[in-house]
């Protein structure tokens, strides 16, 4: 041991202390977790014919109830789930129920509803259309036939989704590194499974699942190692302690702080698909069942950015000067690589994947502005992007050729002539991704860029300029899709838009309408996001 | 600084075409019916526009009139604020006049397809033009920088669809080029818009032009902001070297789209230079003047030279516009009352004369089935009336005294001579070149021996059956085409002989704008006269 004085290491309390839990504050989390557990029971006990209907209803009702209970939780804001160390008066609370956490929870819940509704699409079949009951089998093999004959259904995707949503809600709410790690795993594991359950193009799906799992495991390991280093530095995993330790911290220990902070960020940046931790994104987005891709793109991103915000603004805020430059570099790379590589894509889902990488870069620009207004802008961005994305992927799942999804760009040629409404909705979403005024995409980009120029200093201005240049590049990509759909002639190869059920139609309509509404009248949500932008410490 | 209006005239002006667009696009019925409704809506807009113009008070001391203001996105400091000064008013009126003319000219641009939904394509064409009209009103009337930006960018979308869906063979390329050029300019401007707000007083209405006028900024910031705005406007205007998108876009789009694109939309660039570059960044504007004036003069000469070399009629007309925009920018950056007034008048006149050239040329193109000038020759013998209006349009384009453009060209040159004598002298050569490209085109298209195999309709009727063999009858002007031509030619004559109709409205606005500049640069001499003692 060197002579550096350790910060008060936690001592075991003399007597057992009961953890202090405000159950009303965590009501939304409890409802979602409870619904997920009931979902598991439904799998076991409900009859085959009714399982799908029950699962869908249960999930949607559970999510909506949880969303409604946020109003209750909002009245019980503060730290909870833990205790105050009597001797040092340190607060050891695992959860922070505050504005950003509740805002993210509400966002994830509502986007989750749309996600579940798109996953429930059956196109007249018995189970969800996008999923297979036996993900490990080869399509059309004896194993699959046997599974089908044995009555295997795919309704387990709904409890899995609920567990994932639980983890996502927990992610931006946790107030310590261990809790954050648990949330990370809870949200990831169901997603690994869901990614591998695609009914068609099974090999791609299995590859996606494996890739996501392996790389995800790596990033989790990074996160955990970073946690260990930070614990070594601060003697605590709680964000409050971490922040204080850095403020008072001895420079000699920076050898632990810097790699620790960096590794923890790697784990989180992996989840949002920031360059250079983005390699999984295109493959997983392409291979996963399309409704899962949409859900993942919207909700995982929201959850992970919520976590990044808390880490950056609460846990490591005092050590900002140490790690900001690395994150600035990541943001620049993410924007440029996402924008440039999206130009060369020929597959719609991969295109949207690179677009999501570019968007992650834009959101990072907002994160790096280090201001309350910037937090509001980031929260707004996540809502706007999430709803547009779910609607966009839902539309992708409708465009089919011989029953399978037609994701190659050339297959979309002339779609606007034969299916003007669907194509117009998709074109509108493309314009939103491009950030054209009167769409939510413009308001969100304006928000993060103005925060960056306003409080980010010279770095912020550089980031904003690179951001708009990358936007200009991505415009080309989205405009090309519109060109294909509206200005090109359709090849006569039977690409069709299948008529979806009410649930998918609802998701697409709501996603598109929110994209428009947030573009024309954004001030209500901006106001809400602004009021929800204060972290509790 | 803004005189509020009890009746929201400008909002109404913007809403009528928007409602019209929805009606035209979605109300079931025949395509013919939809076309008539589209014209109806645009005419109603024009009438309301004229009524609104009568409410405009020329003697008012406020910069903007017919004002409206509501909080829109207070978190960003954005208001929904509209208002017009004389400059904006005449440009809006020009747009309102041109829209019904273009709709009428576009009657047969899009063929009706077979099938139950065959008319839908026609309907969306007309609806898009009406949507564009809404944005045209908005962009000139916005008195909030953010709102202006919203209209500036949103306007691209209907044009993008108009070019890409209803254009010529290379329309995809042209539409994409148009969009990328404009958006690249626009996004650079976005950074400047954000930074401008941060320089200003901020608050929930911090984007209003009146709050951002006369700011004290450090010179570097002001210059950077100026460059951000000017770049977008120079792409839009278009000035050499950012002009390359225009010929493609104008040639590949339908004539009505090209007219609105060059006649109205590009004016947003020069309008923006007056409203934003000069008013908000006067010192930076003065700093940039040498470069801008040089580019303007290059535009004048280079555009004219390129026009002379064109063999495609539409391309020729679009290059003449590059030249004309050079004149307009020269007048603006001369910093004199006369130059500014001339430029504004030039914008209006150029709108009409370009519309005439594009639309009349399109009439020829439709008859011949080719845009190439060498495919024509001798057409005044078979379509004398069309040749006549084509000549008038051309003469107006080259600035013949008595027709509108002469007044504005002359005023711009007179106004820029006191401050930019060299540039004014060189630009004068542009007028000579203008005579060259117009008259050469007229000569190649209209004069010469009678074209083989073509014959005027009247002669066709006179000939008997065997003599008709191998001859195609070409109609002279139809009633619809006469209706298209009449208001344009009337505008040339009225604005040619009575330019004060417009100048009286424009002049107070010009004085207002220049007074902002003068506050920042006290030794500026907007009267354009040589101040006493300065020559010593």
TrEMBL record, chain A:
The alphabetical list of record keywords is: Cell membrane, Membrane, NAD, Quinone, Translocase, Transmembrane, Transmembrane helix, Transport
Where does the record place the NADH:quinone oxidoreductase/Mrp antiporter transmembrane domain? 175-468
Q: Which residues cross the membrane?
A: 23-46, 53-72, 92-117, 177-198, 210-234, 246-270, 326-345, 351-370, 377-399, 419-443, 463-486, 506-529
* Source taxon at top rank: Bacteria
The coiled-coil segments of this chain are: none
Topology relative to the lipid bilayer, per the entry, is: Multi-pass membrane protein
Q: Give the EC number(s) under which this enzyme is classified.
A: 7.1.1.-
UniProt cross-references to Pfam families, sorted A to Z: Proton_antipo_M (PF00361)
The UniProt record lists the keyword Nucleotidyltransferase:
no
- Primary localization class, coarse: membrane
> Which InterPro entries does the record associate with it?
NADH-Q_OxRdtase_suN/2, ND/Mrp_TM
Q: Function, please?
A: NDH-1 shuttles electrons from NADH, via FMN and iron-sulfur (Fe-S) centers, to quinones in the respiratory chain. The immediate electron acceptor for the enzyme in this species is believed to be a menaquinone. Couples the redox reaction to proton translocation (for every two electrons transferred, four hydrogen ions are translocated across the cytoplasmic membrane), and thus conserves the redox energy in a proton gradient.
PANTHER family (alphabetical)? NADH DEHYDROGENASE
Identification of the protein by name:
NADH-quinone oxidoreductase subunit N
Gene name per UniProt = nuoN
From TrEMBL, chain B:
Q: Where is the signal peptide?
A: none
User: Among its keywords, does the record have Hydrolase?
Assistant: no
Q: What superkingdom heads the lineage?
A: Bacteria
Annotated NADH:quinone oxidoreductase/Mrp antiporter transmembrane domain residues? 142-428
Query: What Pfam families does the annotation carry?
Result: Proton_antipo_M
Q: Where in the cell is it found?
A: Endomembrane system; Membrane
Query: How would you describe this protein's topology in the membrane?
Result: Multi-pass membrane protein
The protein's UniProt keywords, in alphabetical order, are: Membrane, Transmembrane, Transmembrane helix
Whether Membrane counts among this entry's keywords is yes
Q: Which family does it belong to?
A: Belongs to the complex I subunit 4 family.
- Name the UniProt record assigns to this protein: NADH-quinone oxidoreductase subunit M
Q: What is the lineage of its organism?
A: Bacteria, Bacillati, Actinomycetota, Actinomycetes, Micrococcales
Q: Which gene encodes it?
A: nuoM
């Amino acid at each position: 041991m060197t002579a550096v004085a350790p910060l008060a290491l936690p001592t075991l309390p003399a007597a057992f202390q009961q953890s202090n839990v405000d159950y009303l504050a965590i009501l939304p989390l409890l409802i979602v977790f409870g619904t997920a557990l009931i979902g598991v029971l439904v799998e076991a006990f409900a009859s085959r014919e009714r399982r799908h209907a029950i699962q869908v209803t249960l999930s949607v009702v559970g999510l909506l109830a949880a969303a409604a209970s946020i109003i209750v939780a909002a009245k019980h804001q503060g730290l909870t789930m833990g205790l105050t160390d009597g001797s040092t008066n340190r607060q050891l609370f695992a959860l922070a129920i505050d504005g950003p956490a509740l805002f993210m929870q509400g966002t994830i819940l509502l986007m989750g509803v749309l996600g579940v509704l798109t996953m429930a699409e059956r196109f007249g079949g018995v189970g969800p259309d996008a999923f297979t009951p036996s993900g490990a089998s080869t399509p059309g093999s004896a194993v699959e036939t046997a599974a089908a004959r044995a009555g295997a259904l795919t309704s387990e995707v709904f409890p899995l989704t609920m567990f994932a949503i639980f983890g996502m809600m927990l992610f931006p709410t946790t107030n310590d590194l261990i809790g954050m790690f648990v949330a990370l795993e809870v949200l990831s594991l169901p997603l690994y499974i869901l990614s591998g359950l695609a009914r068609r193009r099974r090999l791609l799906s299995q590859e996606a699942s494996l890739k996501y799992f392996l790389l995800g495991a790596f990033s989790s390991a990074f996160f955990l190692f970073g946690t260990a280093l930070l614990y070594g530095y601060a003697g605590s995993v709680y964000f409050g302690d971490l922040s204080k330790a850095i403020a008072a911290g001895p420079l000699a220990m920076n050898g632990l702080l810097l790699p620790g902070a960096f590794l923890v960020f790697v784990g989180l940046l992996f989840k949002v698909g920031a360059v250079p931790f983005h390699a999984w994104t295109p493959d997983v987005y392409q291979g996963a069942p399309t409704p899962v891709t949409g859900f993942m793109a919207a909700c995982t991103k929201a959850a992970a950015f919520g976590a990044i915000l808390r880490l950056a603004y609460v846990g490591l805020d005092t050590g900002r000067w140490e790690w900001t430059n690395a994150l600035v570099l990541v943001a620049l790379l993410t924007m440029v690589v996402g924008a440039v590589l999206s130009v060369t894509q020929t597959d719609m889902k991969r295109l949207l994947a690179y677009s999501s990488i570019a968007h992650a870069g834009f959101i990072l620009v907002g994160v790096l502005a280090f201001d309350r207004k910037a937090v509001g802008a980031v929260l707004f961005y996540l809502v706007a992007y999430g709803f547009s994305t779910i609607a966009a992927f839902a539309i992708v799942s409708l465009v089919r050729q011989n029953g399978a999804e037609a994701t190659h760009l050339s297959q979309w040629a002339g779609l606007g002539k034969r299916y003007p409404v669907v194509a117009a909705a998709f074109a509108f979403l493309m314009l939103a991704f491009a950030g054209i005024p009167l769409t939510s995409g413009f308001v969100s980009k304006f928000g993060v860029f103005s925060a960056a120029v306003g409080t980010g200093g010279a770095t912020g201005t550089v980031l904003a300029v690179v951001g708009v240049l990358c936007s200009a590049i991505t415009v080309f990509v989205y405009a090309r899709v519109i060109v294909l759909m509206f200005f090109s002639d359709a090849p006569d190869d039977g690409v069709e838009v299948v008529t979806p059920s009410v649930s998918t139609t609802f998701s697409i309509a709501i996603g598109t309408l929110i994209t428009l509404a947030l573009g024309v009248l954004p001030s209500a949500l901006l106001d809400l996001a602004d009021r929800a932008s204060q972290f509790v410490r | 600084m803004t005189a509020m209006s009890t009746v929201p005239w400008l909002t109404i002006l913007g809403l009528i075409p928007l409602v019209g667009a929805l009606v035209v696009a979605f109300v079931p019925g025949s395509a013919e019916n939809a076309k008539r409704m589209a014209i109806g809506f645009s005419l109603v807009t024009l009438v309301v526009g004229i009524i609104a113009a009568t409410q405009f008070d020329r003697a008012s001391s406020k910069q903007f009139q017919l004002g409206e203001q509501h909080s829109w996105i207070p978190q960003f400091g954005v208001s929904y604020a509209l208002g017009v000064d004389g400059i904006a008013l005449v440009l809006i009126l020009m747009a309102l006049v041109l829209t019904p003319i273009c709709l009428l000219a576009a009657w047969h641009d899009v063929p009706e397809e077979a099938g139950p939904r065959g008319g839908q394509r026609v309907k969306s064409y007309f609806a898009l033009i009406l949507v564009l009209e809404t944005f045209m009103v908005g962009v000139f009337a916005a008195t909030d920088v953010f709102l202006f930006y919203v209209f500036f960018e949103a306007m691209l979308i209907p044009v993008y669809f108009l070019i890409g869906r209803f254009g010529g063979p290379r329309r995809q390329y042209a539409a994409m080029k148009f969009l990328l050029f404009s958006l690249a300019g626009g996004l650079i401007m976005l950074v400047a818009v954000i930074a401008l707000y941060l320089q200003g007083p901020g608050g929930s209405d911090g984007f209003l032009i009146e709050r951002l006028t006369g700011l004290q900024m450090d010179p570097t910031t002001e210059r950077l902001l100026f460059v951000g705005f000017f770049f977008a406007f120079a792409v839009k205007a278009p000035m050499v070297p950012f002009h390359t998108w225009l010929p493609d876009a104008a040639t590949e789009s339908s004539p009505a789209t090209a007219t609105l694109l060059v006649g109205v939309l590009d004016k947003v660039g020069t309008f923006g230079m007056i409203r934003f570059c000069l008013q908000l960044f006067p010192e930076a504007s003065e700093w940039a003047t040498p470069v801008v004036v040089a580019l303007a003069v290059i535009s004048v000469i280079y555009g004219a030279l390129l026009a002379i070399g064109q063999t495609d009629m539409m391309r020729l007309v679009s290059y003449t516009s590059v030249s004309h925009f050079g004149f307009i920018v020269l007048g603006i950056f001369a910093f004199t009352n006369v130059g500014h007034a001339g430029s504004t008048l030039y914008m209006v006149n150029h709108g009409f004369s370009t519309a005439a050239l594009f639309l009349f040329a399109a009439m020829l193109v439709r008859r011949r089935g080719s845009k190439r000038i060498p495919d024509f020759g001798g057409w005044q013998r078979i379509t004398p009336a069309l040749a006549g209006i084509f000549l008038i349009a051309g003469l107006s384009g080259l600035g013949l005294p008595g027709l509108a453009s002469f007044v504005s060209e002359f005023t711009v040159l007179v106004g820029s001579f006191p401050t930019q004598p060299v540039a004014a002298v060189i630009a004068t050569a542009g007028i000579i070149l203008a005579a060259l490209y117009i008259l050469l085109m007229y000569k190649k298209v209209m004069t010469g021996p009678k074209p083989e195999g073509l014959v005027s309709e009247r002669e066709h009727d006179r000939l008997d059956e065997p003599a008709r063999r191998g001859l195609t009858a070409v109609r002279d002007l139809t009633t619809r085409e006469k209706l298209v031509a009449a208001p344009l030619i009337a505008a040339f004559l009225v604005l040619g002989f009575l330019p004060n109709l417009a100048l009286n409205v424009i002049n107070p606005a010009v004085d207002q704008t220049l007074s902002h500049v003068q506050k920042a640069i006290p030794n500026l001499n907007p009267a354009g006269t040589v101040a006493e003692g300065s020559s010593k």
